[in-house]
User: Fold this.
Amino acid sequence: MQFFRTILLLLLAVLVLPSLASAAAPEAAGHAVEAAVDGGHGGEHHGLPPAATQFKIGPLLVTNSMIVTWIVALFLIVFARFATRHMQAVPQGAQNFWEWLVEGLHSFLEGVVGAELAKKTFWFFATIFIFILFTNWAGLFPGVGTIGWGHPDASGALHHIEKPLLRGVSADLNMTLAMSMVFFVCWTFWALQANGPGGFLMHIFGPKGDTTGALRVLMIVVFLAVGLLEVVSIVFRPVSLSFRLYGNIFAGENMLETMAMMGGKYFGWLLPLPFYAMELLVGLVQALVFMLLTAVFTLLICTHDEEAHAHGKEHH
Assistant:
């Protein structure tokens, strides 16, 4: 059952995330970026350009990062179907790898959020980890971000790609923000489901601890102020999640391009190789960090303070 839940959420990623990304990156912004690049191509331009529109499907703008999103999602869906087409009691090959990955993630998340919450939320956290991991690694394939269009110099040499054909998914802020917003919607649903509307408000604004008399009145005022700060923190969580993932992956891509340019004509392929190994690790770590942060945010809102404290002591 976990396999099919994973597949369903990947389908959600294919359908929802590109639409959110296109809404977050209107066509006017794309024209402004292109104008800025065109206006400054007289000087040498460094750094990878933002995602560029490749074509339209009705009102939907399809960018180069969205194309990579679809490719990765399609690959994962096909691989999941291939690995589970003939289920065996003793798994082998692709089924063995897929079960190892899913069961390993389930055991890990169960240790973080508990068995009860993992039953409701595992399908999301496991899928978002797998999806981000493979999109991060897909951005390291040769040709992603390095094949496209640009302005050659006077000698006819093209030193910088201004409009790449393909672009790393997490290096596009629209895509990371879309994934964060999908989590925010799920987080709100899980919070209301676990606490109810009244319990949700009490969880944020309600006074903590056993107090009476004037001290209780003071604690109510204090926790109302703390609750307002908590609301601000909650609202900015999608922003922090998206910028953290985007910043690390975008910086890695720019570093690889800089290393390739420093290597010159003959060693441009050699100098970035050690950094490719580091970026493979960064892609894994960032997928894990995104999953862990979203899981902890969910745990904090879906459990009472006493339960969360007991859960933390048990695992400690």
